[in-house]
Fold each of these.
Amino acid sequence: METGLRLTCGVELADRDAPQRLSQLNGAERMARQALALGDRVGGLTDWLGSRPVLPDSLPAIGPTRLPGLWLNTGHQHIG
């Protein structure tokens, strides 16, 4: 973060292998540029997205499995 500002945006529900869509990120950058005196983008950086596990009821899966000593703690969506 010493070289600039990290910009993040919202959530898009899509298939894990769906092509990258940058409309949210581009919109967030446009708004940030209107609000802040930002210079040029740092060279060599690329836009990035990551998949997060989400369950249909939006609740995380936390609990033991059939394997002794192995618990699941997943499905926290974008909240972490």
Amino acid sequence: MKVLILGADEFIGRHIAFALRAAGHEVTASARRPERLAAMGSAMLRA
């Protein structure tokens, strides 16, 4: 399943994004601070 997570750089959004990735879903993440997405790993960062 393809999933869009808004606010993925914050606590709940980050945990949901990692859980969905671990379950094999394709996650696209959005955040107010893109540098925090980059710190989560390139698997979460999309242009």
